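Quick note —
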Amino acid sequence: MKIYSLKQNAIKSTIIQIRKSQEISYKNVNKIVSSIIDDVKKSGDKAIFKLTKKYDNFDLSSQNLKVKKSLISDSSTTLNSSLKKSIKKAIQRVTSYQKKKLPKSFLFKDNLGNKLGWSVSPLDSVGIYVPGGTASYPSSLIMTAVLARVAGVKKISIVTPPSQDGINKAVLFVADCLKIENIYQVGGAQAIAALAYGTKTIEKVNKIVGPGNIFVANAKKQVFGDVGIDMVAGPSEVLIIADNTANSEIIAADLLAQAEHDVNASSILLTTSKMLAQKVLSDVKKLTKESPRSNIISESLKNNGKIFLMNSVKSCVDFSNSFAPEHLELLVNSPDKLLSKITNAGSIFLGKNSAEAFGDYIAGPSHVLPTGGSASFSSPLSSLDFIKYSSVTKISDKGLRSLGENVEVMAESESLFAHKNSISLRLRKKK
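Predicted structure written out below.
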């Protein structure tokens, strides 16, 4: 991790360089994933068993593909009480937050007496991918499944890579709390294909959500259109804007919290204080040595860790808005005042107490966020992603008479004479 001086006129070119270095090549992955998807389409469960043996060295069959209900319900007996309490607290807080975001169906009458509006309904079914490779994340299940439940989704299926030690007990406990019974021991692109097209055991879903590795991300990209997806997420990232009032050790700790995810994670600090930058760099080195995941952190910071000295807070904001980070921390004297100037960010954390880790686990918003600059055009996952709208139209007699001629004229101009006639017939019958 190094300190760089960055002038206003170099912001855009610097961001381009950073984003270019983060680009993931799908060249070889595309072919592999496409082949896996085709295999699952043709052979269903048999393909899943074969591919799981090949990629996970795990023997699957019709007997163990779906996790038994007893294993789900028994999960609570094997977890310590503090973890169970924390999980329940997180579920409660995420539920409360997401309920506030849900819209309701709405109908109104316009000045012609036409009834217009929209009807809101939940998706019928959702598939959730829970990673289980180098680590298993029950928090990711909370941040996806709770949202679906709040929206009213009745059918939820979970897929997660198999393990010789069995499915993570905390993941099973979350599923039990949310009354999810369809849990399948399958990961990778084959799991995405199974959810997208269905097999004898795994039912097809309407939408697939949840983070995963490069093969999972690519599979989601390839099945999009046949099913909905949340996003194609890349490596995680945090950007911190800090002034001379910020605590260097806290900044260092938050940079490391991001870096420990994986070697491709990005941890960036923008500051106007040279003294703070130097202190942060020193604290980063100290805390890295103390971390059990120091190898991952060191590699991550070497690849994607940067400290930029900026000319002003405005330059920091300009950089951030152009970068559109997944996570943005405002560790400045008046973070609330700065908030209105932020236009592009997945999740924003205000002030010294607001560690990004709160967002990962318990604050309320989902931690499934746009990455790689996509926060400039997309939003965090929320309960809104698990509903759909139907527009509602009821034309009154007055509306028919008042608007019908307009439709006739417009339809004729587009040479859509059947459209015109559908209106003309109604007008004649009203005479």
